[in-house]
């Protein structure tokens, strides 16, 4: 379908953008970058973009958002370009959407509707489909503004005494509400299943590393580079939607679970935040969060602010961000050599920042080493002897410790030279009842 993309720029909003908030100074986006992002969203559902327009709105109109003069200009542009769809990169009320469709004789979709359409196409799992359907129904519930005048006042009951029946819109709204309730019940079951999966993962204490970031920051490409998974990774907004988890080993041998989550975006519809909360809670469960940023995008500062705000809404405060988040400055291969060197030097001088290229692999080994160090804590070297009645712990040792040496003894015991973090050492101590360095071969376990 041929579509025209419209980016309204509200005059008062432009003046209010400056300043600072709870997450520090607010970084504003240029109008051109907003238009480029809106056109990218439209291309994500295979629309043919005939033109993109930036429209200044001095005073938002309750009925149409933009003024009548601009409406006439856009109508002429639609006729000239033979376009039947207008995408407005701004929330529209149901009345505004209906009035603009009448004025332009074309279908009108606002930013929320466009993102919902993309998510509907990308969802592939049962959970993702349920979440998108629920969000879409909640969005549509307030937009039943179709013309049902021929059915509006059907009489109910028999004979001449029956009172007026419900309108067609009321019937549609009731049907929508019934479907919403049904989907919410199905989602509750999915949430319980996800909670069971989390409980099982806790029993096998593998740390969880979650990738978050603005959409198209390169999370899936980095995920594939690290884990060898075949997750769809394209230069497209919201190329992947459903979360993917993979188990992998770090360079020192410890097993971790990597989680690739849905990309974030500015002005994420509240319907989606609510519907996808069960999925986003995977981030809350993570021991370490990799915040992937596209350093080749001039607006990466504003995008980072959007991601941090969503994380804050999920309950990850500033203190937690310092201890749980590593910023991954991705796509450095796209930078000019002098900019690349400056970015790499800046990253090297900051804590919790790693400069990488998921495409070329630059910096990925250093990132993996940093993840291993963050998850391992203080590593201690020790020798442990497992007596015959404790040999069932051997798989646990290989899964959770770095084994530098092993000796199978004649008495049936096994000696290990290990490197352990404090957390792992405490866990093994609980399992054995004792853990201390062996200074001679005749350890008295009694």
TrEMBL record:
Where does this one sit in the cell? Cytoplasm
Span of domain Hflx-type G: 207-379
Q: Keywords on this record?
A: Coiled coil, Cytoplasm, GTP-binding, Magnesium, Metal-binding, Nucleotide-binding
Report the sequence similarity comment from the record: Belongs to the TRAFAC class OBG-HflX-like GTPase superfamily. HflX GTPase family.
The residues that hold GTP are: 213-220, 238-242, 260-263, 330-333
Record note on quaternary structure: Monomer. Associates with the 50S ribosomal subunit.
Question: What name does this protein carry?
Answer: GTPase HflX
Q: Name one GO molecular function term.
A: GTP binding
Residues annotated for Mg(2+) binding in this entry: 220, 240
Database matches in InterPro entries:
G_HFLX_dom, GTP-bd, GTP-bd_M, GTPase_HflX, GTPase_HflX_N, GTPase_HflX_N_sf, HflX_C, P-loop_NTPase
Please tell me the species this chain comes from. Answer: Allorhizobium taibaishanense
